[in-house]
Amino acid sequence: MPGRNFLFIPGPTNIPERVRRAMDVPLEDHRRIDCPQTVLPLFEDLKPIFGTKTGRVFIFPSSGTGGWEAAMTNTLSPGDKVLQARIGQFSHLWIEMCRRLGLEVEAVDCEWGTGVPLDKYREILAADKQHKIKAVLATHNETATGVTSDIHGVRKVLDDLKHPALLYVDGVSSIGCIEFRMEEWGVDLAVAGSQKGFMLPTGLGIVGVSQKALEACKNAQLRRAYFDFGDMLRMNEGGWFPYTPAMTLIHGLRESINMLFEEGLANVYARHYRFGEAVRRAVAAWKLKLCAKDPKWYSNTVSTICVPDGFDSAQVVNHAYQRYNLSLGMGLAQVAGKVFRIGHLGDLNELMIVSAVAGTEMVLRDCGIMVEPGAGVAAAQEYLRGSFPAATMGGKRWLS
Ligand SMILES: *Cc1c(COP(=O)(O)O)cnc(C)c1O
Fold first, then answer.
1. How confident is the model at residue 104 (pLDDT cuts 50, 70, 90)?
2. Burial level of 350, CB count in 10 A (0-12/13-18/19+)?
3. How far apart are the C-alpha atoms of 370 and 240, rounded to whole Å?
């Protein structure tokens, strides 16, 4: 097929040409004397992206899921109680992992399309007078439903109740795209992956760890081997790893961080806000509904869009790919067949967003969902023309 694939799933995302070139290097000796010159600055440069000064950031060769496992096994003991809200497929999978690891999970089932329920968390944590709950989990950006939750709010609940549980946050589809303030929000473990905001191939699990979490490692009894923070700490000190690092990806990470810094993190977050808003305006012009139930939960990295009753969203996704070489995100689990997703994160510019909207509009009509021709495109175009990065800072939503 001539032309290129239009990749608008919420990860993996487009790899910038610069990052691809940076990875086009021969494999090298990871014990060579000058390797730490490449590795050590990365640990420092990841910190502002996670929003921490005093924490550490570890780079594991794994996907984001491995980052979850690292976070849990290093800091908890068998039978420890964990609180997590099930708000979509990714929060569900994290709950399932905790159960497999031998943790006792109190799962709060929520309607998909809503965010982490702060009131419910407050109620459960207030009742936990003996502090049996050791871990409070929150999925910052639920990629299945396009919902961003208020992590600062979770921290406030813990602080109000003086509850000592560690706070674990899945930032796989937010970190590097939506502002993340690990330190200010008192996040103890923050998990990211390489193939979303970092614009890299899959293969790195990147985990931010607070000093309080490092302290907790000392008493944590869950079995861990490959993902041991202690091994990482010892080796990272000098710029090394406890096993062969994914050096190719690490060169890519260097370049993707360079790109994020050149644009400026505040501008990166503002750009994601604007692209999210452009897609949301298109959805409104189509008279379709987002899965996210309230504007306060709208995600700047992925929009999950409901198809009208009687239509199958899997057909929309398959037709988009087969007819127009446009990759949209499938509906997952509970919302399979009911929603499709437009990922708007990573290496994107305005005209790429407009093309995704244009393609989606054509697909919807082909599938019998008779949105007004051009309505979504016009709404996105006019919003993008009239909004300027400096005038919009949607990422600030959660900061007060
Ligand atoms: C993609 C994603 C994951 C899973 O990461 P993998 O890299 O596929 O292991 C976890 N959580 C969220 C929120 C995600 O978007």
1. very high
2. middle
3. 57
pLDDT tens per residue across span 109-152: 999 999 999 999 999 999 999 999 999 999 999 999 999 999 99
Q: Which residue from 59, 60, 90 has its CB within 8 A of the most atoms of ligand 1, so it is best to mutate?
A: 90
**Is 60 near ligand 1, meaning CB less than 6 Å away?**
no
Q: Which two tokens stand for residue 341?
A: 């997703």
Residue among 170, 178, 200 whose CB has most ligand 1 atoms within 8 A, to mutate: 170
Instruction: Using alpha carbons, list the distances in angstroms from residue 355 to 196, 222, 348.
Output: 20, 48, 11
Per the domain annotation, does 371 fall within a domain?
A: yes
Question: Does one domain contain both 44 and 185?
Answer: yes
Could you tell me which residue, 392 or 288, shows the higher pLDDT?
Answer: 288
Whole-model pTM? 0.96
Domain of 109 in residue numbering reads as 17-261
